[in-house]
Amino acid sequence: MSEKHLYRNPEYYTNRELSWLAFDSRILSEARDKTIPLFERIKFLSITSSNLDEFFMVRVASLKDMVNAGYSKKDIAGMTAAQQLKAVNHVTHELVGQQYVTYNRSIVPQLAQNGLVIISHHENLTAKQEAYLNRYFEDEIYPVLTPMAVDSSRPFPLIRNKSLNIGALLQKKGEETAEIEFATVQVPSVLPRIISLPDTLFEDEAKAHVILLEEVIEHYIDKLFLNYHVICAHPFRIMRNADLSIDEDEAEDLLKEIEKQLKKRQWGEAIRLEVEEGIDKRLLRIIKKELKLEEEDIYRISGPLDLTFLMKMYGMQGFETLKNPSFLPQMVPQLMPDTDIFEQIRKQDILLHHPYQTFEPVVRFVRQAAKDPQVLAIKQTLYRVSGNSPIIKALAQAAENGKQVSVLVELKARFDEENNIVWAKMLEKAGCHVIYGLVGLKTHSKITLVVRREEDGIRRYVHLGTGNYNDATAKLYTDVGLLTCDESIGEDATAVFNMLSGYSEPKSWNQLALAPLWLKDKFLYLIRREEENAKKGIPGRIIAKMNSLCDQDIIEALYSASAAGVKIDLIVRGICCLKVGIAGISENISVRSIVGNFLEHARIFYFENGGNPQLYAGSADWMPRNLDRRVEILFPLLAKDVKEKALHILQVQLDDTMKAHLLQPDDTYEKIDKRGKKHICAQDVFCQEALRDAQALQISPATGSRVFIPEQHQEDGE
Fold first, then answer.
1. pLDDT at residue 413 in the model
2. What value does the mean pLDDT take over residues 13-20?
3. Active-site residue flag, 353
4. How many angstroms separate the CA atoms of 342 and 450, rounded?
5. Domain residue ranges of the chain, discontinuous segments joined by +
6. Beta strands of 334-456 (E only): which ranges?
7. How far apart are CA 80 and CA 77, in angstroms?
8. What is the CATH number of domain 341-509?
9. Do domains 341-509 and 514-696 have the same CATH topology?
């Protein structure tokens, strides 16, 4: 085998889809961990369900498209699309089974023990309870329902993607020989799915009793079909292909084309059917036939369909002792609310660490720029923003104030397309120059450029981040952001926006590296430099933190560096196609995945560089889509204190013994054996440090907010 392809053996790689399912299993393991507060566990169980939905709508849908198209090319792990689909179906059925074992045998009984009882309509209801539910159904639910029968004049109705429905078999009353008919009713998403029942209906001491909306509808479904005998009624839910196919070269107006495709998403090909376990075979046969589904696409569920309702349950009041205390993001010491943000950036580069430190300075950066008479222009890329985005408002205000405002709004940000179309139109009305991304590429980079006229001339201020300009997710996702007025970075930032708006590629870059043209080569160069140093006897070291790792060229380079003696520590939250422990190849590589209260989202990279370490952060994971098909930015961390802070983040995560799952040679992940080890939870450490830094400045958290002071993961055990 040539040296170039020495590490291309499919046995050296894990299939991407199976690796993702292993990630969802790690989240499920948090739901099963009895040392975690009960309401945190129901949150993790909800997340596994919502994750699985998106996985089917995009990844499984893509595999099915490939199989239907006869696509036979193998992936890096040597699997065809058909083989992947078969393996995914097998693993997913097992995963769903584990979800419901966790729900039925652990979560529901423990909720009841702690005063939250989930009622099923199959249980015997007292006369009082029956009377209350009957009245609730008549007053609140019945007027909203639309029962739909199927017969020769009424075809099988269109069932919306992800909607919860109840299918029924009916027979006309008084006609024993009458044909059995099918009918369905959608469980209205406009009504709350969790219905709280009055305490007066119960004689136990529970704090709350709830029943699910579909349970009530099923219980009283005969009221919808008065002339019929209801033979059976069972809930079902379908998942459809939601991957948009947009021919950008042919689309005259990208915005209109995406709006058109969004409507189709609701009615894409059905790819998964969830039904209640024990569903009547005749009813299932009708649904299966109409939706053109195979047996392996059917998931028989022992419990409520769609466990994402548990996230709503997490928000119920009165159970705070069963949750982790909430954490209030702390002030950034260099950027107190009364400081001039531009003056502070001129003094030093500032590395922000969210959500431990507040996202407010990023919002203030844009707001101050919008009002500042010395600011001439603001340029920004937007991928995903919040529903009531203060940044969007500030950009609109800046345009109204006469600033030159250019905004690239990525319309192709999956599942945020509709939201981004609304923002794009609003910004255009306010007078901003709006760019709708680039043909064939997604713009995933996170960059803001502020051009300011000062006494000594034009100065450029830049914010670069690993996460979206989304003030809502900035409280939940761990990210880093850099505020700088470094001249060379400022020049590069100008070149980035000129490239995005006018297709003018610079001849060279000072500090930034961009995908899809330059970034992969930069990473490969940095990895190979460590390898060359190791071959010369100079210690080589790489620490890389990201969301996903599945680019074959990068993995090959890591294998080669490891074989040369480079010590490589990878912190990969989700997909990892690299294998550890391969003799002579990956013995110097460790991989850990941290699953905690916050979603790990930052991308930070460390290269030893012969004793002169270089650190970078950026928007890109080590995936083909990021490196080859997106506009991404990698930026260097140049200032000494900024480098030290970034390295500290990496080191604390490598020291985590509480939430880290270590990848094993057999592709499984195991939590660290904590016996005899210091109990360290990286996310708790960062919370404590942010609190300590804020308290040193005598900053008190906002009145009425509970502060998260971790106690459960200290050295003396849990």
1. 58
2. 97
3. no
4. 10
5. 3-322, 341-509, 514-696
6. 350-354, 375-382, 404-409, 433-435, 442-443, 447-454
7. 9
8. 3.30.870.10
9. yes
